[in-house]
Amino acid sequence: MLDDRARLLLKTLIERYIADGQPVGSRTLSRAPGLHLSPATIRNVMSDLEDMGLIASPHTSAGRVPTARGYRLFVDTMLTAQPGELAAPALSPEQPQKVISSAAQLLSNLSQFVGVVMAPRRTSVFRHIEFLRLSERRLLLIIVAPDGDVQNRVLFTETDYSPSELVEASNYLNAHFSGMAIDQVRARLHQEVEHLRGEIAQLMQAAVQVSSDAMSQAQGEVVISGERNLLAVSDFSSDMNQLRRAFQLFEQKAQLIRLLDVSSQAEGVRIFIGGESQIVPVQELSVVSAPYEADGQVVGTLGVIGPTRMPYDRMIQIVDITARLVSNALSQGKPGNA
Q1: How far apart, in whole angstroms, are the C-alpha atoms of residue 21 and residue 31?
Q2: Which residue of 32, 149, 164, 170 could cross-link 145, Cys pair, CB 3.0 to 4.6 Å?
Q3: CATH number, domain 4-78, options 3.40.640.10, 1.10.10.10, 3.30.530.20, 2.70.70.10
Q4: d(CA 12, CA 29)
């Protein structure tokens, strides 16, 4: 356990490093307001903090920088995010895709880092299905979700369906299965297939399969905005390998999805610091994230990705207020809601 003197020194060192981006030495700390310690005492305390793995010397400089463990102790026990006025425009309650895209841009603009939003988890339920003939044996399947979101998929068929047959199939699906989960629709169609004309039954079964695929693909959508902001971060410009790994993380997205899935299981803002675990695979990156809701139910996660040397108190405010804005927009955008 750290005594009060060591805690105050560590807090001061991390805050100064976040502000300046330079290793912090004992002389600099001795001039810090509120830290009434001699340079010799500061050097002794810094030596103890280094032995505990909370700070480290990046090179021969006498200065020290926080480690991932030091950052973790700082954000868990020393950080006080002050409620302040943050100018953030409201998000219009439009289609969920537009809300998510706008939220990622808002996170990026406010933080000047990378904004990332995991798209809402969609229930595999459709409100309306429609077929549009594109060419011979080639159809456009239009799937409208209960929240108004629209998915379009091209469907290739063995039979060339007439416009009247397409209307018949869509009318049957909408009349009998609207509001049901895709798996339920598939099971019911298997039972009813004998009572339907063979060609129409095949078309509807194909539509159900494509609808299921479309909605399962949408579960893994991650919207990212502001990747190029990292090019201006000195922590990365001096180490292109770290920057390259960060961009690989954005391109692959699979690790991001796992990270945001973890975030959605907790209430409020969470902070993940690179280097302390495999959750954030890039050592110089940190993630500040929070879940967002629609009608009181957690449906996704959003956050800011930036250097470990980020102003965590401001990032917490940005992420928290954006999560609230997204929750309000998605709830207002539901059919039947004001």
Answers
A1: 17
A2: 149
A3: 1.10.10.10
A4: 7
Report how far residue 258's alpha carbon sits from residue 246's, in angstroms, rounded to the nearest whole number: 16
Say how many C-beta atoms besides its own lie within 10 A of residue 265's C-beta: 10
Structure tokens that stand for 175 in this block: 């009349």
Residue in the structure block whose two tokens are 């063995």: 158
d(CA 120, CA 301) in angstroms, rounded, equals 8
pLDDT of 215-233, one tens digit each? 555 555 788 999 989 888 8
Burial 21-41 (b: 16+ CB within 10 A, else e): eebbbbebbbebeebebeeee
Determine the straight-line distance between the first and last CA of the chain, rounded to whole angstroms.
52
Are residues 293 and 327 in contact, defined by beta-carbon separation less than 8 angstroms? Answer: yes
Among residues 131, 177, 128, the alpha carbon closest in space to that of 154 is found at 131
Q: What backbone phi and psi angles, to 5 degrees, belong to 274? A: -60, 140
Out of 3.40.720.10, 3.40.50.300, 3.30.1490.190, 3.30.450.40, the CATH code matching 96-121+221-332 is 3.30.450.40
Summarised one tens digit per residue, pLDDT across range 36-48 is 888 889 999 999 9
SS3 of residue 104 by DSSP: helix
Higher pLDDT, 300 or 87: 300
DSSP state of 310: S
Tell me which DSSP letter residue 242 carries. H
